[in-house]
Amino acid sequence: MVSDCSGGGGNGLMENLASSRFVAACVFAGLVVGASVLALHLGGYANAVGMPGFGKKKKRRPVRVYMDGCFDMMHYGHCNALRQARALGDELVVGVVSDDEIIANKGPPVTPLHERMIMVKAVKWVDEVISDAPYAITEGFMRKLFDEYNIDYIIHGDDPCLLPDGTDAYALAKKVGRYKQIKRTEGVSSTDIVGRMLLCVRERSSGDSHNHSSLQRQFSHGHSQKVDVGGSDSGTRVSNFLPTSRRIVQFSNGKGPGPDARIVYIDGAFDLFHAGHVEILRVARALGDFLLVGIHTDQTVSATRGAHRPIMSLHERSLSVLACRYVDEVIIGAPWEVSKDMITTFNISLVVHGTIAENKDFLKEESNPYAVPITMGIYQQLESPLDITTSTIIKRIVSNHEAYQKRNEKKEASERKYYEEKKFVSDD
């Protein structure tokens, strides 16, 4: 009997305990659900009224990358390097080497620091610029980059950058594992561009008009040729630029103007793209919502500026202009005269031109290229912020011919060695 009574009581107790656990579980589940609903409600309310600490995910710190350079005679190769560097992080900080450092390591720069700063700041992929950067990454400067500028990686091209003593300028960054490499842009360098101008100086002095025309065609069509310069044994390598549709897409903004956009048009040769070009484009862009830039053909530039021009080919000039943050779109091979049909086709609201130009008397000529927009009342002449033209850059080379000749002779050996030993490097 005892066993029967104790068994029955045990079953009742177990049933009570199970029931209690069930009720507790239901209560706990209800509390969890209620708390979740309340949290969602409060989070939504907090977001609506801007209360901190509610409904926000922790933001990832942006990856910051650093690239330095002289950026002398800045060209589309420099811009493409900056584009590639920017693709390796979220923010690109660029160091522009000082004039004194360039003189000590390479020879005299063609463009002074303040002009090179204007050029670098105008590149669409650049977020921040450091002036007077050292030529070599020293221990102290590297620590400053990591600690003060929060730099994650230091970037350079696959071509070697050696100091006068033969050591690698980026050895320290490589040693600490904070170095990344990009692909050098094919077919152009500052040494090459200076060499083109030195060749022009030499050929012009020879008085052979046939050679003038032939040389210009070599530049405009990118034919690679080794030419003796100044009677020395060294040669200047004329660029072999191979334009591709992918490169143009990479440089393009990829979007057109809105339906009600005020479109501003400016055209020109934009040869040896320089700070004067950048500043007039900045002023022009401020007058509308969309800046369309016409790049004249090589033939047009030769006809209006002389047989030795342009120094840079049409596609080279187009890429340089496309890389500028103030430019929305370019017409590759724009006509000399701005016609009514062209204005209608591109829905141009305003045609502008700077006061500083190679030919300042074009408005007085019978074949005034802006006659139509002037008649329509949509032409405006802009005060150019800088008194610099392509001829200004060429004159700097001519006036210091011997110094630049020596500089190029030093660089040509390393350029030749790079092309002889270069290997494939993947591009983005």
TrEMBL record:
Its EC number is 2.7.7.14. Keywords: Nucleotidyltransferase, Transferase. This is Ethanolamine-phosphate cytidylyltransferase protein.
